[in-house]
Write a structure and sequence with these properties.
Elements (H helix, E strand, L loop, with lengths): L1 E3 L6 E2 L4 H13 L16 E2 H7 L5 E3 L2 H10 L4 H14 L10 H6 L6 H8 L1
Parallel strand pairs: 1-4
Antiparallel strand pairs: 2-3
Length: 123
C-alpha cells in the first residue's frame, strides 16, 4: 500500500521510467539537444490510485498531510526531508501540472509508453 497526502481526484501526467531513461540517453549521447527543454509526460493523466494500480504496485490510500508528517517524524526522518515532502505533496502535486507534453514524441520520435502496457510487458 502506498499512502500519500494527495487529493484522490487530482490527476498528474505520470511518465514511464523507461521513457525517462531513454530520453536521458538520447539527450546526452545524441546531437542537437543542448539548450533544448523536453517536458516528459506520460500518455494520459492519471490519479495516484490509477498510477499505482497500472504499475501493479498495490493500492493507494490518500491520507491527511498532518498524519503523513507525523508518521515521517515518528520514523525518524530528518526535518529538511519532511519539509521537502510537505512542499512537494502540499504544493506541487495539487493538479497544477495536469497537462500532457510532447517531449517524449519530440525527443524520441514516438508517443510515450502507456503505464499499463509497460507493466503487462514486464510481467
Amino acid at each position: 500500500m502506498l499512502a500519500l497526502p494527495v487529493d484522490p481526484a487530482v490527476t498528474e501526467p505520470f511518465v514511464d521510467a523507461d521513457d525517462v531513461a531513454e530520453a536521458v540517453v538520447t539527450a546526452l549521447l545524441g546531437g542537437g539537444h543542448q539548450g533544448r527543454i523536453y517536458e516528459l509526460t506520460g500518455s494520459c493523466l492519471l490519479t495516484c490510485a490509477e498510477a499505482v494500480a497500472s504499475t501493479g504496485g498495490g493500492t493507494f490510500l490518500s491520507v491527511p498531510m498532518a498524519g503523513f508528517v507525523a508518521e515521517l517524524r515518528s520514523a525518524g526522518e530528518p526535518g529538511d526531508a519532511i519539509a521537502l515532502l510537505g512542499y512537494l505533496f502540499g504544493t506541487l502535486l495539487d493538479g497544477r501540472n495536469a497537462c500532457l507534453g510532447d517531449g517524449v514524441q519530440r525527443l524520441l520520435g514516438r508517443p510515450p509508453r502507456d503505464l499499463e502496457a509497460t507493466r503487462t510487458a514486464h510481467g
